[in-house]
């Protein structure tokens, strides 16, 4: 990735963050913290990594993405809208009655959503099924899924991890958005997950640990994952919850709360400043 | 005429799946370490590359099935009814039902006729659980031929289907030369105007014997085989209510949430008549031989004849 590409990704991620704030503010509810922490990786997936075409969202040969941490839909919606799957105007009606954009991803009605998700622990299983289907068909598309760190407390995540390893799903790349916070507090205070790398390793995964808000590291992780054969890969990405909005960063209270008008203005001004700096 | 051989509907299921798979390469089968019991092993032997054991992890199995279906496969996922519908209820609801994915779920060893394994494995709640999921088709075939046709119909239907399978080998009573299965269409096995008995699944044949015995005692009962619990055949129920004025339902399932309440919902809204529900009376089963349990719970032919006679007094 050259400097120009890096800059473009950073700008796009900043715009995705604006859409997150726009959506959650207008919805008067939602999950900005984890959406902001994952925004860089989701941006990278849709604008660099995945073989997808917004004009042909059901292409059988496309790469798939399952947002297992479905409550961070605002980040995914932002990326999909900016990519051209649907109008950016849809973001303002997020969570409204009659709107296309549901509180959690809905594959039936939203172009670009590969799997309905939101009940934690379930998306990774569906991603396993998609990766298995690719193997069965002899198709070379890849399947990506993103888990929250708190989500890894769900037993189903580890059922799926066993399955992925048993069936040697090397076309499956799992990302853990490790922002360290869940609703009830610090992950390590609620139900400690560490050592999460050793856990996945013992389940048969290739382990890649990165800073999930650093595009160079994100790129090297996804590139490396593609070279792994005979086993699935997990990218354990340390991120900052609320990344990009100063007062939300590392604050557990912003897991699932919408900003008020004043907070919205502050957040958008901060993101505008960041975008202007990138465009300068 | 129908043969009198005995075969469990789980075995009929395995055989039907195997036959259907010949022409449909998109059919794949998942199991949760119970292939020998659910009889998906018949498929596994014929198509080892299309069979995926998920281990004892039913929640993940349903999610994997959803992912396969999202990529154009037609997965049949099997386990015991207890674990397929109970353990994995929420996975079915959110990963299969909500996106209306083309996943077929088979729940074997349903009801008390599991026998010796006892209450933990005797699922009498599966029909109730599956009925509550929007868009879910719920099938409960009564014998070998019906199961064979039900599997074909489940495949032909584009969307989630639950199929209930039994462990116990039972007589086949349907005539394969004159049998037609259609999702949501009950079958009148015997005409009659004194009362209508509506039965489903394994106990349909017991009910058939019971109404024949009643006939000899001057009670002319109609018998309907309700192989589809959802969508329920409203027309056949309303017609029976109007013409016979009284309905008795028979199921190897809790009287709460199953066939009986599905029938009551139709009569209450369309043609209120008295409905009595014969089934498992909101209790757990226990260990014992299957036939002994069927007798104890009053769901064998003799027990049904006695109960129906009492109800009609």
Produce a short descriptive summary.
The complex is a heterodimer of chains A (280) and B (313). With 280 residues, chain A is of the alpha/beta class.
Structural class of chain A: alpha/beta
Shape of chain A: globular
Question: How many H/I helical runs of chain B?
Answer: 13
* Rg over alpha carbons of chain A: 17 Å
Overall SS class of chain B:
alpha/beta
Supply the CATH class of chain A: Alpha Beta
List the helices and strands and how they pair.
The complex is a heterodimer of chains A (280) and B (313).
Chain A lengths: L2 H25 L4 H18 L14 E4 L5 H11 L39 H15 L5 E6 L6 H12 L5 E7 L2 E2 L2 E2 H5 L4 H7 L3 E6 L3 H13 L5 E6 L22 H19 L1
Parallel strand pairs in A: 1-2, 2-3, 3-7, 6-7
Antiparallel strand pairs in A: 4-5
Helix pairs in contact in A: 1-2, 1-3, 1-9, 2-3, 2-8
Chain B lengths: L5 E2 L1 H13 L5 E5 L3 H4 L2 H6 L4 E3 L4 H13 L3 E7 H7 L1 H9 L6 E5 L17 H6 L5 E3 L4 H13 L4 E4 L5 E2 L15 E4 L4 E5 L4 H13 L4 E5 L2 E3 L3 H11 L2 E8 L4 H12 L4 E6 L9 H7 L4 H12 L1
Parallel strand pairs in B: 2-3, 2-4, 4-5, 5-7, 6-7, 10-11, 10-13, 13-14
Antiparallel strand pairs in B: 1-8, 6-12, 9-11
Descriptive keywords:
heterodimer; A: 280 residues; alpha/beta; Rossmann fold; two-stranded antiparallel ribbon; 9 helices; 7 strands; globular; B: 313 residues; 2 domains; five-stranded mixed beta sheet; 13 helices; 14 strands
Describe the structure.
The complex is a heterodimer of chains A (280) and B (313). Chain A is built from nine helices and seven strands, in the order ααβααβαβββααβαβα. With 280 residues, chain A is of the alpha/beta class. Chain A has one domain: Rossmann fold (3-Layer(aba) Sandwich), CATH 3.40.50. A five-stranded parallel beta sheet of chain A has the order 1-2-3-7-6, sandwiched between helices. The radius of gyration of chain A is 17 Å and the shape is globular. Chain A starts with a helix and ends with a helix. The mean pLDDT of chain A is 98. Chain B has 313 residues and is an alpha/beta fold. Chain B folds into two domains: 6-171, 3-Layer(aba) Sandwich (Rossmann fold), CATH 3.40.50; 184-312, Rossmann fold (3-Layer(aba) Sandwich), CATH 3.40.50. Helix content of chain B is 40%, strand content 20%. In chain B, the strands form three sheets. Chain B has a seven-stranded mixed beta sheet with strand order 3-2-4-5-7-6-12, with helices on both faces. The two termini of chain B are 35 Å apart. The A-B interface holds A 60, 64, 66, 106-108, 114-119, 121-134, 136-137, 155-156, 159-160, 162-163, 166-167 and B 28, 49-50, 52, 54-55, 57, 59-60, 62-73, 75, 90-91, 94-95, 98-100.
């Amino acid at each position: 990735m050259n400097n120009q590409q890096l800059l473009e990704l950073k700008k796009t991620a900043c715009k995705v963050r604006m859409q997150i704030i726009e959506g959650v503010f207008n919805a008067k509810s939602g999950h900005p913290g984890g959406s902001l922490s994952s925004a860089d990786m989701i941006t990278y997936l849709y604008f660099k990594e995945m073989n997808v075409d917004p004009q042909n969202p059901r292409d059988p040969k496309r790469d798939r993405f399952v947002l297992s941490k479905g409550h961070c839909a605002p980040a995914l919606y932002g990326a999909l809208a900016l990519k051209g799957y649907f109008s950016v105007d849809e973001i303002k009606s997020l969570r409204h009655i009659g709107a296309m954009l549901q509180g959690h991803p809905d594959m039936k009605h939203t172009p670009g959503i590969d799997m309905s998700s939101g009940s934690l622990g379930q998306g990774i299983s569906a991603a396993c099924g998609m990766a298995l289907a690719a193997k069965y068909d002899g198709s070379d598309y890849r399947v990506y899924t993103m888990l929250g760190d708190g989500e890894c407390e769900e037993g189903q995540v580890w059922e799926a991890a066993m399955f992925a390893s048993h069936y040697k799903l090397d076309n499956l790349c799992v990302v853990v958005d490790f922002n360290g916070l869940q609703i009830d507090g610090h992950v390590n205070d609620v139900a400690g997950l560490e050592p999460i790398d050793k856990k996945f390793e013992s389940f048969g995964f290739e382990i890649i640990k990165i800073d999930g808000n650093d595009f160079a590291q994100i790129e090297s992780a996804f590139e490396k994952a593609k070279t792994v054969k005979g086993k699935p890969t997990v990218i354990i990405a340390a991120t900052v919850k609320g990344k990009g909005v100063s007062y939300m960063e590392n604050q557990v209270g912003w897991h699932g709360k919408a900003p008020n008008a004043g907070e919205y203005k502050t957040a958008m001004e901060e993101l505008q400043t960041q975008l202007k700096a990138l465009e300068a | 005429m129908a043969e009198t051989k005995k075969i469990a509907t789980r075995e009929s299921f395995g055989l039907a799946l195997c036959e259907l798979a010949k022409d449909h390469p998109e059919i794949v089968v998942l199991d949760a370490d119970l292939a020998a019991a659910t009889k998906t092993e018949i498929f596994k032997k014929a198509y080892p590359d299309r069979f995926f054991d998920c281990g004892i992890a039913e929640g993940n199995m349903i999610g994997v099935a959803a992912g396969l279906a999202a990529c154009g496969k037609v997965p049949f996922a099997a386990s015991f009814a207890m674990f397929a519908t109970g353990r994995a209820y929420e996975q079915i609801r959110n990963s299969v039902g909500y996106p209306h994915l083309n996943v077929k779920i088979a729940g074997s060893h349903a009801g008390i006729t599991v026998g010796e394994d006892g209450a933990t494995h005797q699922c009498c709640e599966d029909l109730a659980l599956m009925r509550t999921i929007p868009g879910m088709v719920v099938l409960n075939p009564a014998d070998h031929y019906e199961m064979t046709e039900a599997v074909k119909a489940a495949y032909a239907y584009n969307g989630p289907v639950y199929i209930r399978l039994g462990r116990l080998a039972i007589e086949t009573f349907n005539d394969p030369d004159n049998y037609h299965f259609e999702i949501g269409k009950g079958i009148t096995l015997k005409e009659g105007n004194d009362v209508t008995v509506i039965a489903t699944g394994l106990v349909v044949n017991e009910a058939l014997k019971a109404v024949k015995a009643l006939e000899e005692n001057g009670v002319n009962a109609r018998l309907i085989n309700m192989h589809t619990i959802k969508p329920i055949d409203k027309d056949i129920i309303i017609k029976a209510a109007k013409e016979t004025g009284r309905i008795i339902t028979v199921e190897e399932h809790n009287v709460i949430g199953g066939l009986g309440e599905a029938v009551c919902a139709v009569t209450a809204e369309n043609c209120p008549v008295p409905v009595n529900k014969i089934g498992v009376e909101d209790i757990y089963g226990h260990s014992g031989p299957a036939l002994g349990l069927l007798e104890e719970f009053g769901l064998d032919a003799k027990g049904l004849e006695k109960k129906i006679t009492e109800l009609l007094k």
